[in-house]
Design brief:
- The structure is a homotrimer of 143-residue chains.
- In chain A, 25% of the residues lie in helices and 33% in strands.
- By secondary structure, chain A is an alpha+beta fold.
- Chain A has a five-stranded antiparallel sheet with strand order 1-8-3-5-6, with helices on one face.
- In chain A, a hairpin with a 2-residue loop joins strand 5 and strand 6.
- The first copy, chain A, starts with 5 loop residues before the first strand and ends with a strand.
């Protein structure tokens, strides 16, 4: 292991509360990998929040709309009344369930100092509860 | 890499068969990380079972109840009759599908010898088929 | 870290378009681990595609049938008309959502030069859009 670079990124999750948003963070992750000097290894990209996701998929806005609609109509409707978590004063239980479904982190392989992605693979941050400033940790391991 | 600590943990999954249970294992994972002496790296926390999950989310009992209800009513109802897997003599096909949805492992970053979590992030074991003694592997890599 | 082996594997995804297929790739992953010479570490197994999954579960054909049925009836029906992504000329939006639900990669621990799996754990490639030649990256880190 030559070094282990650690960075975080602030995500501004839209202009209003509860904004659901999908943000392509591939270029920022690639910049962290370049900065680390690692040639062969892994990069962990992980949301530091329990109502968000990090995932690898396609840079296509129609698909992003499909994902948001699917989260609402199929995975976990926002409807605060159905969740006990919301008796604590929150109303974002659905965002937790969306985070659990898609996951909150990915590991991307690094080969020859680059993100070793297949065709169309990109890495995204998914904000399911757009209330606060958000952070993503990007951590590189390898040599 | 200075060392690579490997541990397993027995999970007692409640008192009856098919108990669905969510267990906070953060302190035990943190203890393994401390024991490893790793300052910068990753810890893998992985269920050694195909009817269980490991995930990062919130220590809030109302949310845990929401997750269990959501798994039953939305993700994969237990109802043994709907699954071909259960023709083998099992009745836990739903537990497999719940494991696939939430995932069976997480990677947590280690920074300055600590679990590098955001606010409220904790790591949990989810038991979806409470029949047998269960194990979680905790493996640290870094330097 | 003694070395970091990187391999890809072609997956022939059945004979027709849109073939949904679950393929046990454990032996090929184990062979890559053996070739790497790594005794203690991690292996990343990651689909290089955005309409596929890699997951750990059970080698049981009834369960595989349950997974395929569940993806179609509960997770994301294929029905191309419901998705905006398909206005781009694709018809595989459902395959993207299935990939997001199950995930596209796993990390498996390596202990004493072997995949450190619990009982019945095996690693699978899930093809949700059987159109093209597919690749899985297998990358080992450790010492």
């Amino acid at each position: 292991m030559r070094n282990c670079e650690c960075g975080t990124r602030n995500v501004s999750a839209g202009v209003g509360p509860r904004v659901q948003e999908i943000i392509d963070i591939t270029d920022e992750v690639a910049a962290q990998v370049a900065k680390s000097g690692v040639q062969e290894g892994f990069v962990l990209v992980s949301a530091m929040h329990i109502t968000a996701s990090v995932f690898v998929n396609d840079h296509e806005s129609g698909l992003w709309a499909d994902i948001l609609k699917w989260l609402e109509t199929s995975v976990a409707p926002w409807d605060p009344k159905r969740y006990r978590h919301n008796e604590t004063g929150e109303d974002n239980a659905a965002a937790h369930l969306r985070s659990l479904t898609i996951g909150h982190e990915v590991i991307v392989p690094i080969t020859a100092a680059k993100l070793d992605f297949g065709p169309w693979q990109r890495v995204f941050y998914g904000e399911w509860d757009g209330q606060r400033k958000k952070r993503v940790i990007v951590k590189v391991i390898g040599e």
